[in-house]
Amino acid sequence: MARERKDTRLQSEGAEFLVLGNLLIEGISAYKAYHNFKGYDLIAVNAENNTSARIQVKSRFKTGWEGFIINNFDCDFVVLVSLNRGFDKPKKNGETGIMAPTCYVFPVEYIKIAAEDRSGWGKISKSKLKDYQDFQDKWDLIQEFLSLK
User: Fold this and answer.
1) What is the CATH number of the domain that holds 65?
2) pTM above the 0.85 mark?
3) Which of 9, 51, 76, 141 is 20 to 30 A from 89 in CA distance terms?
4) pLDDT truncated to tens, each residue of the chain (149 aa)?
5) Does residue 14 belong to any structural domain of this protein?
6) Contact 71/90 with Cβ under 8 angstroms?
7) Cβ-based burial of 28 (10 A; exposed 0-12, middle 13-18, buried ≥19)
8) From residue 32, how far is each of 6, 26, 102 by CA, in Å?
């Protein structure tokens, strides 16, 4: 019996605004690309240097994500937001897995390398993201890209 797929569109939108908020808190001017911008969801800018960074936001609803789907690499960064909204079932000790979201800031070149031997439907598995933990909250990568640092 197939399990019904959960509608997470609202949480996906929330992930974009979460990334937008983090960028602003880090002193990076950014805007949401509201529609019809294939390849990116947010635009970070440095008006003084006339530079911009296109950011694609990917989100995973469940805690303990296994990977994510990406088919368009027309961006400068991919920010993966692990929303950590819980496990499929609580663990035997009662742990639900619900915790604060986690953001990983990846340069698109890193994602392209991980995507080289991905599945036919575009999924990059977590095992292909070598040392992905090193990219947690690496907002400084975007600051450097924009010459803000």
Assistant:
1) 3.40.1350.10
2) yes
3) 9
4) 566 778 889 999 999 999 999 999 999 999 999 777 889 999 999 999 999 999 999 999 999 899 999 999 999 999 999 999 998 878 888 888 899 999 999 999 999 999 987 767 889 999 999 999 999 999 999 999 999 87
5) yes
6) no
7) buried
8) 25, 16, 20
> What tokens appear for 116 in the block?
């080289």
Residue in the structure block whose two tokens are 């392209």: 112
In a domain, residue 2? The reply is no
- Structural domain for 73, as ranges: 9-143
**Is residue 44 within 8 Å of 30, Cβ to Cβ?**
yes
∠67-92-125 over CA atoms, to 5°?
Answer: 10
CB 62 within 8 A of CB 86: yes
